[in-house]
């Protein structure tokens, strides 16, 4: 089974896309609207996972209401990567190596954790992370829209699951494929 690990920024985009009344056509940032739509579609059609470092980042959000929404999304809808204690030494070594190329240790740790759990992709909108670390990993480092395009899911393919009819987003059409 292949799946994509997601960073905390992508979790934010997913929550924003799930907001009642969200409409990408009225999103003031067209580039981010594309990513929000893509990550919501990935949420419905693909397999996404979060790593322990992403969970820690979400828990550190200073806005308690936003933090609660982020944590609730993960608790209910996104699987959390389970990393055995025996893998921590290799992860720490990989983080040290990656920091030679990218100074953000948390980004490096997220990538190392994603590798350790066998993800095939790390989704991030962080251009520097993707540019600096792509040659240092076997994972694909890409934006949600790139991954969605790479999956080449045929239009009309039913999602793995869809919003319940009682969910207001079920009446929206922007996410349909």
Count up the domains. Answer: 1
For the largest beta sheet, what order do the strands appear in spatially? 2-1-3-4
| Counted beta strands | 4
Mean pLDDT, to the nearest integer, reads 95
What is the CATH-assigned architecture?
A: 3-Layer(aba) Sandwich
CA-based shape: globular
The CATH top-level class label: Alpha Beta
Sheet having the most strands = 4 strands, parallel
Instruction: Specify Rg, calculated over alpha carbons.
Output: 16 Å
**CATH topology value:** Rossmann fold
- Main structural class: alpha/beta
Point out poorly predicted stretches: none
What amount of the residues lies in strands? 5-15%
Number of alpha- plus pi-helical segments: 8
What is the share of helical residues? Answer: 40-55%
Order of helices and strands: EHHEHHHHEHEH
Distance between the termini: 22 Å
Mind explaining what this structure looks like?
- The protein is α/β, with parallel strands linked by helices.
- The chain has one domain: 5'-nuclease (Rossmann fold), CATH 3.40.50.
- It has 8 helices and 4 strands.
- A 4-stranded parallel β-sheet has the order 2-1-3-4, sandwiched between helices.
- Strand 3, helix 7 and strand 4 form a beta-alpha-beta unit.
- Helix 2 crosses helix 8.
- It is globular and about 50 Å long.
- The mean pLDDT is 95.
């Amino acid at each position: 089974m292949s799946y994509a690990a997601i960073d905390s920024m992508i979790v934010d985009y997913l929550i924003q896309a799930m907001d009642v009344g969200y409409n990408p056509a009225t999103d003031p940032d067209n580039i981010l609207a594309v990513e929000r739509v893509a990550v919501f579609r990935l949420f419905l059609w693909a397999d996404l996972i979060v790593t322990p470092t992403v969970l820690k980042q979400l828990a550190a959000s200073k806005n308690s209401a936003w933090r609660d929404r982020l944590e609730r999304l993960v608790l209910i809808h996104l699987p959390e990567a389970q990393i055995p204690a025996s893998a921590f030494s290799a992860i720490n070594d990989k983080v040290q190596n990656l920091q030679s190329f990218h100074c953000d240790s948390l980004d490096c740790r997220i990538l190392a954790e994603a590798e350790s759990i066998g993800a095939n992709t790390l989704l991030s909108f962080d251009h520097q992370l993707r540019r600096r670390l792509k040659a240092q990993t076997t994972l694909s480092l890409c934006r949600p829209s790139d991954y969605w395009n790479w999956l080449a899911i045929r239009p009309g393919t039913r999602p793995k699951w869809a919003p319940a009819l009682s969910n207001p987003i079920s009446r929206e059409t922007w996410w349909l494929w």
